[in-house]
Specification:
Metallo-beta-lactamase, Chain A; alpha/beta; 9 helices; 7-stranded mixed β-sheet; globular; about 300 residues
Length: about 300
């Protein structure tokens, strides 16, 4: 299994267009202490020819241009190796990239009923796409099942959705009638046995999820906020991390305590908000993450299982 982190930032990217917090200011300064990051998305493939996207960010065009395997085949006027998009939720930073794929062929979008409802009622995704290439909705399975290419051939990967609870996106909060709006994805390479667990948005963790965290070689985990009141501390907002659907990294109930104890080869934080000080190369927050055996994800990072 080949894994490419296309983008590792939360909504808005780093630096965010209207933000002058410490991290964004440092990113613009050119000091090298903060690397620019695009919004969160991951590309995976079993054969390096057919690729699947976990979320499609608003920065998808730039991410494709930065990664030649996602670009059009050299022997065709048009085309794409992207076989499907797998959505973890209906947030705009994970779904606006689907609109960017409208000039291509019809393709599958894997999404739960709750995510599909939010997108249909709140963003008009299906109606808009139907005027262009169209798309096919696929409900992701809860048990390992084959992940098919666009032409229904075998991709070499098995996958399943991991329900994580969570609420609807802000734009659909008034109309949504569903529950459980957030999932992660568990992937298994049928040939190598490599396992990837992708959890970019984690509202909370129960015992079942705690047990599951060790069932992988690569764990991509929600690194949105360092602490519960980060937005308030940085002067960027008032809403606590938990109310925004993200488990903070630090503290006795934070994710770092759990990840530190895991016997997993690669433990990588992604979907990192621009206010999070782990983005600063020489911060004590980053040092704490590294000391726990975890990694701060960067755009362009690649792994092979």
């Amino acid at each position: 299994m080949h894994i490419r982190l296309l983008g590792t930032a939360a909504g808005g990217g780093v630096p965010q267009w209207n933000c002058n917090c410490l991290v964004c200011k440092e990113a613009r300064s050119g000091s090298g202490r903060v690397r620019h990051r695009t919004q969160s998305s991951v590309a995976i493939s079993a054969d390096e020819r057919n690729w699947f996207l976990v979320n499609a960010s608003p920065d998808l065009r730039v991410q494709i241009e930065a990664f030649p395997p996602l670009q059009p085949p050299g022997d065709r006027a048009r085309g794409s190796p992207i076989q499907a998009v797998l959505l973890t939720n209906a947030d705009l930073d994970h779904t606006l990239g689907v609109f960017l794929l409208r000039e291509g062929e019809a393709f599958p979008v894997h999404a739960t009923g709750a995510v599909r409802e939010s997108l249909q009622q709140g963003s008009g995704l299906a109606q808009t796409m139907s005027a262009f290439c169209g798309l096919t909705w696929v409900k992701p399975p809860l048990e390992f099942s084959p992940l098919s290419n666009r032409d229904t051939s075998d991709s070499g990967l098995l996958y399943r959705a991991i329900p994580l609870g969570g609420g609807p996106p802000r734009y659909a909060a008034a109309t949504s009638t569903a529950s459980n709006h957030v999932v992660g994805y568990h992937f298994l390479d049928q040939k190598t046995g490599g396992r990837l667990l992708c959890l970019p948005d984690v509202p909370t963790i129960n015992q079942e999820i705690k047990t599951l965290l060790s069932d992988c070689e690569v764990l991509l985990f929600d690194g949105t906020f360092w602490c519960e009141n980060e937005m308030q501390q940085r002067g960027a907002g008032e809403t606590p991390a938990s109310q925004m659907g993200h488990m903070p990294i630090s503290g006795p109930n934070g994710s770092l305590v759990l990840l530190k104890a895991l016997n997993v080869k690669h433990k990588i934080y992604l979907h990192i908000n621009n206010t999070n000080l782990i983005l600063l190369e020489n911060s004590k927050e980053r040092a704490t993450v590294l000391a726990a055996g975890c990694v701060v994800g960067e755009d362009g990072m690649e792994l092979t299982l």
